[in-house]
Amino acid sequence: MAELTDAQIDAALARGAAARQAEPRAVTARYEQQLGRVVVELSNGCTFAFPPSLAQGLESATDDQLAQVEVLGTGSGLHWEALDVDLSLPGLLAGLFGTRAYLAHRAGRATSPAKAAAARANGSKGGRPRKSA
Q: Which domains does the chain show, CATH number per domain?
C-alpha cells in the first residue's frame, strides 16, 4: 500500500471541510413520543423527521430505546447504542432507511390494489405452479 503524502492528506482535509460547509449535518436528534417520530435538527436550519418503523433496526424498538438517539461525531449520522443501530444522515435524507436487502424485503411485503388483484387471479387458476426439478 502506498504511503499518503502530506499534500494528499491536506487535500482530503480540505474536501472534508468543504463538505461540512455545503452538506446539511445533524446538530441535534431526539425521539418525540407524542408524534412517534425521530426528529433531527440540521445545520442548515431545516428539520427532518421520520417514523422509526421505517428504519432498519428501529422497527420494534421501545420508546425508551428510541429516546437514546445520539448524533455521530461530525453530524453525519445517528446512533442508538442499546440497539446497536447506526443510520447515515445522507441516506436518511435520500429516503434510504436501511440496507439494499432490507429495503427490497420491505418492498416485497408492500400491498397494492394491483398486487391483490394479481394474487386473486393467480389463486383462481389454482395458485402458483409447482417448480419442476
A: 23-123 (3.30.2020.40)
